[in-house]
Amino acid sequence: MKRCSGGKLSKSGYALLTAIVAINIFAIMILKARSMWETELQRDLEEELIFRGRQYVTAIELYMLKNGSASPQNLDVLFEKKFLRKRFKDPMTGSEKWNVIMRSPGISKDALLVVPEDMVPQFVSQATIIGVASSSTEEGFKVYRKKKKYCEWAFYIGEEEGKEMPELKFMDGSNPSSSDDSEESSDEKVDDKKPDSSGRGENIDNSSGDDEGTDERDIDIEEDGRQKKPGRG
Q1: Residue 84 region by backbone torsions, left for phi larger than 0, else alpha for psi between -120 and 50, else beta
Q2: Residue 13 and residue 18: Cα distance in Å, rounded?
Q3: Distance between CA atoms of residues 146 and 179, nearest Å
Q4: 79, part of any domain
């Protein structure tokens, strides 16, 4: 009887151990699947950031083409004047507020200014709006023109994708240099002074001046800025 009882207890113990192992394996698989899903979602958001950033650039080009090379005073006017079909949110933050890319030879001939949208009125009379960038300081999976942080992914008129990103001056006083930047770049200090000479009236490359709506993808975006998985046609 004892042997039989001992045998039954042994089988029950093995069954419990097997169940525990199976539960642990299942939990690991769930965590791995979640991690893969989050990675895929982040990559989709990065592609959406590039798409939306270039939509703003196209809208700015069309605005300048129609207004004698005068740049817009803000991003809202692009939507109000129908150069942009909607006020796209920054997909990395879910906010409609972007960092605005501006150019002013008064600060540096080769540098681009990165200005928080709320600060644009302080610069717009002396600098030219030429593009946008995300306000997120997070690093992405993708490296865009040798930059990892989303706030350093500048999309602007005259951008050359094959070349390294030009010097970026963050006019809010920050200096979120990517960890892969050169030692020289990471040691540079931000010059917070306002531009002191006119950067308006620059010539623009009108080669991409097609109607903004002609190359838009049919992407369904939730109001909070996160992307639904687009159906593949």
Answers
A1: beta
A2: 9
A3: 10
A4: yes
Asked if residue 46 is part of any domain, the answer here is yes
Residue 142 DSSP SS3: strand
88 with 108: CB under 8 angstroms?
no
Domain span at residue 53 reads: 2-201
Q: Which token pair is 158?
A: 């005259």
CB 37 within 8 A of CB 136: no
- pTM of whole model > 0.85? no
Measured between alpha carbons, how far is 6 from 91 in angstroms, rounded to an integer?
Answer: 62
In a domain, 213, yes or no: no
Q: What total of structural domains would you count in the chain?
A: 1
Contact 230, 219 (CB under 8 A): yes
CB-count burial class (<10 Å; 0-12, 13-18, 19+) for 11 = exposed
Task: Identify whether 233 is part of a domain.
Answer: no
Q: What is the pLDDT along the chain (233 residues), one digit of tens a residue?
A: 444 454 555 677 777 777 787 787 877 777 777 667 677 889 999 999 999 999 999 999 999 999 999 999 999 999 999 999 999 999 999 999 999 999 988 776 778 999 999 999 999 988 999 999 999 999 999 999 999 999 999 999 999 988 899 999 999 887 776 544 444 443 443 344 444 444 443 443 444 444 444 344 333 434 444 444 444 33
> Residue 168 belongs to what H/E stretch?
strand 168-170
